[in-house]
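Backbone geometry:
***
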Amino acid sequence: MSEGVPAEQLSDEQLRHELAVLKGKQAEIEAGGTAHQKANHEHRTSQLEAAFLDRFGSKAQSQTGPGSDEPSHAEEADGAGGTAIPS
């Protein structure tokens, strides 16, 4: 399985970028990807999301609103000054 740069070695900006790229490819991979591509995508996304939550802890907000299929904007923060997981 392709790993890419370990999440802990990415800068905050790189981590946000990598998550945004993966989120952007998610529908395409789910619709037409091979089993290997789907597993690799899920594994890498999980790694990067875990690293994001480790870095930003309780400030990190959900990617989607309640009942919404649309992800929030990557750079948006909630009214309390939280940080959104990039979409």
